[in-house]
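Tokens for PTS glucose transporter subunit IIA. Go.
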Amino acid sequence: MANFFKKLFGKSESNTVESNTVESPKNALVAVATGDLIPLSEVPDPVFAGKMAGDGAAIMVKGDTVVAPADGELSLVFKTKHAFAMTLENGLELLVHIGVDTVSLNGEGFEQLVEAGTKVKAGTPIIKIDRDFILGKGLSLATPVLVTNVDAAKSITAVETGSVVAGKDIVVNYEV
């Protein structure tokens, strides 16, 4: 699955976004949202719970902004804005999927803040959500943060409990 997103969606011109970001911790992913950590196995979707899309952590989102989990290139923002992918310099490919079954909203309740192809720092705001709207539709805001090319990592260790702050707290440690 190496370079999965670049192969699937093509390489795009890179830009760089500067914002109130944190220094990306070495070999770690930070929380993409403020909320409570849950084990992937508790995400109410069998693809994520069964680690079929990758391995990592999940956050029950309590805030309204979803940020980059690490320094890297924003490879893709789904047209429905409910998910985005990143490629890190070390070759790891990440997927952040905001909520469960949120693709059904066709982008309503999501505002994209950064264009695909942009180099971002950990903590850069990527998507703003209308939390009340999404929850009002009866959808879960369980948000997986996944390493999709797990074969590129020697180990992936998720933090599965506790409250986290977007862009600050470590949710996944890995070794490449």
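Helices lie at 4-9, 46-49, 131-136.
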